[in-house]
Each structure stands twice: as C-alpha cells, then as structure tokens.
Write a structure and sequence with these properties.
The protein has 242 residues and is mainly alpha-helical. It is built from 7 helices and 2 strands. A hairpin with a 2-residue loop joins strand 1 and strand 2. Helix 1 packs across helix 3. The radius of gyration is 41 Å and the shape is elongated. Pfam families: DUF4407.
Length: 242
C-alpha cells in the first residue's frame, strides 16, 4: 500500500510496508527506509530560510543538499546587500564604512526576509498558477539585483571611472583653450572661417594695451633720468664732505 506525502517539490509516493526509520538502529541502510533521521545544524537553519519543512524533507533526504545550497544563496545575497549598502552610504556621506555597519545589517535583514519570501511562496504551487507568480517576483528580483550590484560595481571600477572622467575633463579644457586662442589671436585680427560664437574675449583691442605699455615705459625712463641726477648730486656732496 502506498500513500501520497506532500513535500517541497510536490507529492511523494511512500510504501507503508517499509519500516519506519526511527525504529531502526543508526547503522541501518538509509536508502530503503523513510522517513530518515532528522538533520540538525547549519544546514537545517539554511533550509528553514527558504521555507522547507524538515519533517516532510525527511521523506526525501536526497533533496537536502539542494535546499541547503538554496538557503546559502539567500544568506550570500544578504551579505552582498550589507556590503553594498555600507559602500553606498559611505560614498554619499564621506564617512568611514565601518560606521554604517548597523545600516548594512538592517538592509541585509530586509533583503534576506524578502528573498526568503520570494522563494518560500513558490512551494506547493502547481505549474499553471506558478506562471502568474513568477513575473512579479522576477521584477522584484531584478530591482533588488540592481540595487545591490550598482554600489559594488562602482566600488570595484572606481579608479577606472575616475581616470576616465579626469581624461574627459582634460580633453574638454584643452579644446576650449585651443578655441579661445584661435578666436582671439594676439594680432587682434578677426578670425576667418571659424565659428567663434561664445569664444570671443572683449578686451577693447590691442591698441589700449600698447598705449598703456608706452606710457609705463616713458615713466620708467623719466624715473631713471631723475635717479641718475640724484646719484650725481650725491657723489658731488660726498666730494665736498671730504
């Protein structure tokens, strides 16, 4: 006689004529007896994160590694989310990353909780209804993935992005400087064949500068003549003093 037993992946046919595992010694072969002895430890906790009931899984122990790894993926996602949040907040605020550990842990808890719900809510759903549940959960997963990955990507490629931005700014400055020189030659002649809209510098032409230079040169020469006269007068006074 067989009985249908519900499990994480659906129903499992169990032969009730087989002996119960709890009535056998510990060294008895496992493959022929169901349910097997309960499993404990970290693996049980990881499976609990994804909504697995251990008393049902005891009837299909070969599924334990799969659900254990699935729970480990959820934990790893939470760890990456915590690191991502600490990096993002530290970048925005400018403080040390370790100050924001509580914020990262809170974000990791929220991500693990939501991720666990996304997986656990799919257990026991038949194929027809599962299609309607996959689409919204897939969209939520994509949003979470982008939220978690973006700060870490910026952290990893921070130096390359900074170098590219600096090189881009350097090219822009050099191009702007070159256009200013082309549109404002020293001779003061108007540029020919160039679109200099927004690049012309109005300094009143070169003549005012040349006139100011001539006046300054004349003042210099006058001051030098006066200095020479005073120097001669000083030498004459020194001879009289002797």
């Amino acid at each position: 006689m067989t009985t249908e037993v519900g499990g994480p992946r659906g129903s499992t046919a169990v032969d009730e004529r087989l002996p119960v595992r709890s009535s056998l010694p510990n060294d008895a072969p496992v493959g022929l007896y169901r349910p097997v002895a309960p499993a404990y430890g970290v693996g049980r906790w990881l499976r609990g994160l994804v909504g697995v009931k251990e008393d049902i899984l005891d009837w299909a122990p070969e599924e334990r590694p799969r659900y254990t790894k699935l729970g480990a993926i959820v934990v790893n996602t939470g760890i990456m989310a915590a690191l991502s949040m600490m990096v993002a907040v530290s970048t925005v605020s400018g403080g040390a990353w370790w100050i924001f550990v509580p914020v990262g842990l809170l974000w990791a808890y929220l991500i693990v909780t939501l991720d666990s719900w996304l997986i656990a809510s799919m257990h026991g759903v038949v194929h027809g209804a599962k299609a309607w549940l996959v689409v919204p959960r897939l969209l939520i997963s994509l949003v979470l993935g982008a939220t978690i990955a973006e700060p870490l990507v910026l952290l990893v490629f921070h130096q390359s992005v900074s170098n590219e931005i600096a090189e881009h700014r350097k090219r822009e400055v050099e191009g702007y400087e070159g256009r200013l020189k082309e549109c404002n030659p020293v001779t003061g002649a108007p540029p020919a064949g160039l679109d200099c809209a927004g690049y012309l510098v109005n300094v009143g032409g070169v003549r005012p500068l040349e006139q100011e230079l001539a006046e300054t040169t004349g003042l210099r020469d006058t001051a030098r003549t006066e200095l020479d006269g005073l120097q001669g007068r000083l030498e004459e006074l020194e001879r009289l003093a002797r």
